[in-house]
Amino acid sequence: MAPIVVSGTSFDDVPAVVGIVSAFGLIFTVSMFAWICCQRKSSKATKTPPYKFVHMLKGVDIYPENLSNKKKFGADEKSDHKDKDSSKARIPKNSLHLDLESRDQNGNFTKTPAKVRSSPEIESVPPKLCTDSEKDSVSSQTPVSDKPAAPSQQQNNAPNLGSLAFSLKYNFDKKALLVNIIEAHGLPAMDEQSMTSDPYIKMSILPDKKHRVKTRVLRKTLDPAFEETFTFYGIPYSQVPELSLHFLVLSFDRFSRDDVIGEVLVPMSGIDLSEGKVQMHRDITKRNCRKSVGRGELLVSLCYQSTTNTLTVVVLKARHLPKNDVSGLSAADPYVKVNLYHDKKRISKKKTHVKKCTLNPVFNELFVFDIPCEGIENISVEFMVIDFDRMMKNEIIGRLVLGASAEGTVGEHWREICEHPRRQIAKWHCLSDG
After folding, report:
1. Please, is 321 exposed, middle or buried when counting C-beta atoms within 10 Å of its C-beta (0-12, 13-18, 19+)?
2. Rounded percentage of the chain residues whose pLDDT exceeds 90
3. Of 70, 143, 253, 285, which residue is least crowded by CB atoms under 10 Å?
4. Sign of the CA dihedral 170, 172, 175, 176?
5. H or E, element range at 250
6. What does the pLDDT average to over 388-416?
7. How many whole angstroms separate alpha carbon 42 and alpha carbon 36?
8. What is the DSSP string of 206-224?
């Protein structure tokens, strides 16, 4: 048998080759890592960091990432005209856009407002002079009470809240309604220390309440000059008489809720915009918080689980809710807030989703509350039906309290819940004033 001869020279060269390849690979990896780090560092130095801020300049919210060329201040007139034409071509139909008049770098208007015609029925006149046609138009637009008070009593009882001047125009080519809030005069002082106000105006178009805008805040003045124009696109001229403009005059307060000075409600049914711009002058009246006789009804279902010591509450639906809007033209946006009390101390709270533009909302939402004590003798449940509003304070439509101290059908419902645990019991209840 022949001997096996192994050549050791070939195997001795392998570790050296492997070491050389590993060294080159390590050098290449380190160099690539260093190059990538340098590239990232240089890109971070040159790249603008992502940011989002709100720059308040005379009521205009400017977001840099969404800022169009037509709203960049300091541009020349030619670029402004070109950008305005291009932005107009990109505006889709049946959509809402706000278009403010051109301003300079300081936010002031570059063009003086042109002379416009005034409506014969609503032309601004001295306070003590009033024609017969103006009396007829004012009497047709203001609600008439059953027992009219004497003029002297009306002047004494109604406080003077000032007046608001604005103009209206309809653009037939773009199907857009233009509202120019000009100025206000004779506003009351809401700050007792400085005897002045920081007024601004919130405007909405009723009855849909979809178009909502607000002006900038003017500091320490009782005669603010706003001169702001808002353009609402996608409004056919045939629907204009069915709309109403609602102006809410407020005073900004940095440390608490803004004070409501008054409101102006303008029905569009008697205003002709076919001939051009119409300038109007209206007195500011006290805010009308409408309260109807009936608060509506709420259907709730409750079940007490004695084994787990929990209370299951189901908010099913409501019906016949009142129109809590200031004009009484639009439906409410209700939701229900549920509070759990133990010995008159609130220990838990829940709320449902908001149901838009309905007086008969269907919620069908279930909540489970843990009871801190054995039994529900000292427990009470409060239901508050609230009208949601983005611009103003939410108003309470009605209230319902279930507990041991309740009387009538509410008390009977609570006793049935205590006497029949593990049974879901549902009943309709009338809401009371909040």
Report:
1. buried
2. 33
3. 143
4. negative
5. strand 244-251
6. 86
7. 10
8. ETT---EEE-----S-SS-
Instruction: pLDDT band for 115, please (50, 70, 90 cuts).
Output: very low
pLDDT digit string (tens) for 145-162?
444 444 444 445 567 889
Has residue 41 got a pLDDT over 90? no
User: Token pair for residue 121?
Assistant: 């029925």
- Closest to 371 (Cα-Cα) out of 287, 306, 301: 306
Cα–Cα nearest to 120, from 104, 101, 137 = 137
Contact 328, 284 (CB under 8 A): no
- pLDDT, tens only, 159-169: 788 999 999 99
Could you give the CA distance from residue 81 to residue 79 in angstroms, rounded to a whole number?
5
- DSSP of 291-342, one letter per residue? --S---EEEEEEEEETTTTEEEEEEEEEES----SSSS-S---EEEEEEEEE
Instruction: Report yes or no: 329 and 306 within 8 Å, Cβ to Cβ.
Output: no
Per-residue model confidence as pLDDT tens digits over 185-206: 999 998 878 889 999 999 988 8
Contact 71, 58 (CB under 8 A): no
CA nearest neighbour of 253 among 286, 281, 217 = 217
Instruction: Yes or no: say if 267 and 122 are a contact pair by the CB < 8 Å rule.
Output: no
